[in-house]
Amino acid sequence: MKARLQTSLGQQLVLTPQLRQALHMLQLSSMELEAEITQALESNPLLDWDEGQGDGGEPEVAAEAPAESVVESEDARSDNDGDDRWEHGLDETWGSGSGGSFDDDGGGDPLDRYSSTESLRDHLNWQLQLSRFSPRDLRIGEALIDAIDDDGYLRESLAAIVEAVAPDMDATVPEVANVLYRIQRFDPLGVGARDLRECLGIQLGALDEDTPGLDAAVEIVAGPLERLPKLGVDGLAAELKLPVDEVETGLALVRSLDPKPGARLGSLGADTYVNPDCVVWRQNGMWRVALAGQHQRPTIHRGYQAMIQHASGSDASYLRGCLQEARWLLKNLEARGDTLLKVMRCLIRQQAGFLEFGEQALRPLTLREVANEVGLAESTISRAVSRKYVLTPRGTLPLRSFFASGINTEGGGEASSTAIQSMIKRLIDAENPRKPLSDARLADSLKAAGVPVARRTVAKYREAMNIPSSHERVRMG
Question: What average pLDDT does the segment 214-223 reach?
Fold first, then answer.
């Protein structure tokens, strides 16, 4: 073929360092984000703390992005034209579950404060339950997730997974491979890979085709990946028969990938306390939501910024680089807060009944529904709710608690799995302690209430709530 030059006009998505930082910050918990910001302030002289308290007035909230939003309850809409601005600081609100800006119209006792962390297995099982899997594939997916280690790798063979599900079904290796392919696209991307090469290949496969260095990165991962330290850039370029600059771009892309996608989950200690990312309260019949922790946030140090104009040579170059990094950090913090508010507003609209009446009013809700409503990808929603908490009149709740898979009811609607668990718990609490209800009788009671659930499903939900079987619940006293 004859070599020629050709120009074209088009749009492309490039995984820039700024975009990688935005994705990284979105998936961090509030405590991890605070540590990340603190580290950035220590290493970057262009960053400084902005207390935002001024002269003792109302705390400042999100200068560029809206930090407070109003969501009307479906059964309590009112044309409130007065000044409904927040009259109390966040720190003051956290100390109490009633009074101030909290109008706990929903009633009920506040839930205990969450202090446990989310493990990789919990995070994957949660996504599995919210995905469109058949009951057969769901059982295979549970077995696969049980075999994934803390780093995110599947150490068991597919044949071993077939044997693990053998008591329940006669699965095949291709069936297991198909389910594994879908799990490997869960968040974190690349989880469930059998080795490093497959893990990095999955992450590269999710990038846009026009990402700089993608072709070279794919060849590096598929080829001499384990010999990179010995070959070096020049040796790698010679072996792959590619230009040195293209190999360097590909290597930079490979280094930006996560070789242990599961390691970041469950990394906090078991005694870590939860700091809420958002605050939700009810006022004048409407639900309000705001970002927590807006009383202290980073800002650009104006003194060092002014020094750039008078500096010269390497000093000016260094300060300009620090200024660019500082702007990226502030912009990505703003984007993170904006995404959390979008997701939280959607969750409140969808689950107002849950906030008012408790778990029995939780309706089925999936990642896809929220993603479609807010206009973001499912993986972005998964990152946004992972290890995030919200302070509500019912206590401090994980954002995951607003999601639930559904079961069709005889009335033509759907009941969430969480609501069904709440129904089971109420039935057990009201049972005769001398003659506890068996799983079969619980299933019959649910069916009579219009929720047809199999006995095996009842047993699964009961075990998930750590409730013993009927013969272990017998009390003669």
Answer: 88
Domain assignment present for residue 50? The answer is no
In 264-313, alpha helices (H) = 302-307
Same-domain check for residues 31 and 108: yes
The answer on 414 and 349 residing in a single domain is no
In this structure, are residues 188 and 127 in contact, taking their beta carbons and an 8 Å threshold? no
The radius of gyration of the chain from alpha carbons, rounded to an integer in Å, stands at 26
pLDDT tens string 236-256: 888 888 888 888 888 888 888
* 147 lies in the same domain as 101: no
Is 131 in the same domain as 244? yes
Instruction: Please indicate, yes or no, if residue 212 is contained in any of the structural domains.
Output: yes
Does residue 198 sit in the same domain as residue 241? yes
138 with 70, same domain: the answer is no
CA gap 88, 173 in Å, rounded: 59
User: What's the one-letter identity of residue 110?
Assistant: P
Domain holding 437, by residue range, is: 406-472
Q: Is residue 307 part of a domain?
A: no
In 399-476, DSSP assigns E strands to 406-408, 414-416
Return the closest-CA partner of residue 415 out of 374, 362, 455: 362
Specify whether the CB–CB gap between 430 and 371 falls below 8 A. Answer: no
pLDDT of residue 273: 63
363 vs 422: CA distance, rounded Å: 12
User: Average of pLDDT values for 352-370?
Assistant: 82
What does residue 290 show for φ and ψ, rounded to 5 degrees? -145, 155
Amino acid at the residue 296? Q
Residue 392: is it exposed, middle or buried by C-beta count within 10 angstroms (0-12/13-18/19+)? buried
Is 266 domain-assigned? Answer: no
* Confidence band, pLDDT 50/70/90 cuts, at residue 102: very low
Question: In this model, does residue 86 exceed pLDDT 50?
Answer: no
Task: Tell me which of 27 and 452 has the higher pLDDT.
Answer: 27
**Contact criterion met (CB below 8 Å) for 403 and 130:** yes
CATH at 428 = 1.10.10.60
